[in-house]
Amino acid sequence: MSRSGKYFRNCNENVAGGSFANQGLDERSNSLVHEIVQLTKLGSEPHKGLSKVLPGKPKVPVSPVKMLAGREGNYSGRGRFSSADNCHILSRYLPVNGPTVVDKMKSSAYVSQFSQDGSLFVAGFQGSHVRIYNVDRGWKVQKDIRAKSLRWTITDTSLSPDQRFLVYASISPIVHIVNIGSAGTESLANITEIHEGLVFSAGGDDDDDYSFGIFSVKFSTDGRELVAASSDGSIYVYDLEGNRLSLRIPAHTSDVNSVCFADDTGHLIYSGSDDNLCKVWDRRCFVTNGKAAGVMMGHLEGITFIDSRGDGRYFISNGKDQAIKLWDIRKMSSYIAYNPGHRSRDWDYRWMEYPDNARDLKHPHDQSLSTYKGHQVLRTLIRCYFSPVSSTGQKYIYTGSSDNSVYIYDLVSGAQAGRLAFHEEPVRDCSWHPYYPMIVTSGWDGVIANWEFPGANGKTVPSKRNRRRRRPIYI
Q1: Are 426 and 69 a contacting pair, CB within 8 Å?
Q2: Cα–Cα distance list, 251 to 120, 220, 255, 296, 391 (Å)
Q3: Distances from the Cα of 369 to the Cαs of 168, 304, 332, 372, in angstroms?
Q4: What CA–CA distance (Å, rounded) separates 300 from 323?
Q5: CA 53 to chain centre
Q6: Cβ neighbours of residue 346 under 8 Å, at least 6 residues apart?
């Protein structure tokens, strides 16, 4: 049985109300005290034997020299490094050097992500472009896609697990799918290649359909389904094999800005909305009871993005209350105890600064485990992520920011571990390579920038650039 299955054995059972107090945080030390601390240590701390190479009390972090000596002396009893040992070494070398400019477009970059194996990098721009770069071939443009029926901007993209197909979304109920395995570099919608439209509305394949827009779209792990978040407060699941919409969930009372599968099973879905709530959906139960499996309260403003840890248990969310929150779905409630709604109807994150008197406000029934602050979530739907499991053991959380930077936080302590400052405009999205110490950032200045650990080859550009004012654009 999957981990997620253990929590939802009976669809007729109400989930535990959970504790409304933020029990994951040690008020004295301001550090996280929870099971996820042990999970993080198991994934990113070295074997105890490797920390005892020299006399004295073992200390963490352990230097690579000591770990190499310990491996040669077989202090761990394995004769080799474990995945946690490898993560301990790699997680010390944060990719903060540079950056080098991968590309510079005339329109704002909205989305960017590495493929699962890190060989490809996808970036979506406001000017109808989606570019796929071949990382292993020196960032050569492998596919230059010109989008069809673009409404304002590319809101999201997703690569299929086998890296054969890409879907892109816009402010439209039609998501387009492209075969990226074809030989040609240029992909002009329905001119050089077919960009098939996947209809998420009941109105049919109509390019003039403005009924709602798609803000977030993701492939399932098996590549057979898509899950999408929309501006009509709904979550949609699309069956690619049947070429049909298989499920619509009226999920929230406002825009659903982000959605993702909780784990590889595809049974659980996380969603975040402008109604300030994160929700958990069990597809096995929704058909019979039509309700969310649980609700997570804690944000005071709308949620801009959600990222799953991939274990069907933990996820993080970025909020317009200028905070990232860490959640454990075992603490979710079956009802909304209290939702403060919008702090002020006069405040709009798209063109106003967050009020100083609201920065220290707390939700009276905050169910999150921990809160991370320092970055800015203004002007656009800023995205956040767990750092890669293979190279860091998911030891960090990182996020874009409207102050033109990327912030890296230590998941356990909450301390700021790094800040990448280079762009001239907000950094809406960023992506950490799944195996190498490399982060690529994409900004509204149209720049795709590559950050690596100090010592990486390649000419770098100055870390500070002359700031210039540009006409603001919003979404």
Answers
A1: no
A2: 33, 19, 9, 13, 35
A3: 33, 19, 11, 10
A4: 9
A5: 38
A6: none
Per-residue pLDDT tens digits for 334-349: 877 666 655 566 889 9
The amino acid at residue 469 is: R
150: helix, strand or coil: coil
pLDDT tens readout for residues 307-335: 999 999 999 999 999 999 999 999 999 87
Is 420 in contact with 405 (CB distance < 8 Å)? yes
Look up tokens 């981990």; give the residue. 3
Supply the DSSP string of 33-77, one letter for each residue: -SHHHHHHHHHHS--GGGGGSSSSS--SSPPHHHHHHHHHTTTTS
Q: For the purposes of burial, counting CB atoms within 10 Å of the CB of 300, is it exposed (0-12), middle (13-18) or buried (19 or more)?
A: buried
Task: Kindly provide the residue ranges of all beta strands, DSSP E only, lying in 135-242, ordered along the sequence.
Answer: 140-146, 156-159, 165-169, 174-179, 186-188, 196-199, 214-219, 225-230, 234-239
Sign of the dihedral defined by the CA atoms of residues 40, 43, 46, 49, in that order:
positive
Helix (H, G, I), strand (E, B) or coil at 252: coil
- CB under 8 Å to 358, separation ≥6 — which residues? 300, 321, 343
Parallel, antiparallel, or unpaired for β 186-188 and 140-146? parallel
- Tokens read off for 458: 């390649």
The tokens for 222 are 């098996």
Over the stretch 381-409, which tens digit does the pLDDT of each residue have?
Answer: 999 999 999 999 999 999 999 999 999 99
Two tokens, residue 194: 């077919």
Separation CA 205–CA 276 (nearest Å): 32
In angstroms, rounded to a whole number, what is the distance separating the alpha carbons of residues 150 and 185?
Answer: 20
191-228 pLDDT per residue, tens? 778 899 999 987 655 555 568 999 999 999 999 999 99
DSSP helix/strand/coil, 178: strand
CA proximity to 173, closest of 146, 141, 200: 200
Question: On the CB side of 199, how many CA atoms lie within 13 Å of its CA?
Answer: 12
Q: Which residues contact 248 (CB under 8 A, 6 or more apart)?
A: 234, 235, 236, 237
Instruction: Specify whether the CB–CB gap between 142 and 134 falls below 8 A.
Output: yes
Top-confidence residue, 34 or 301: 301
Per the listing, tokens 């394995």 go with: 78
Give me the DSSP letters along 289-339. Answer: H-S-SEEE---SS-EEEEEE-SSSSEEEEEETTTEEEEEEGGG-BSS-S--
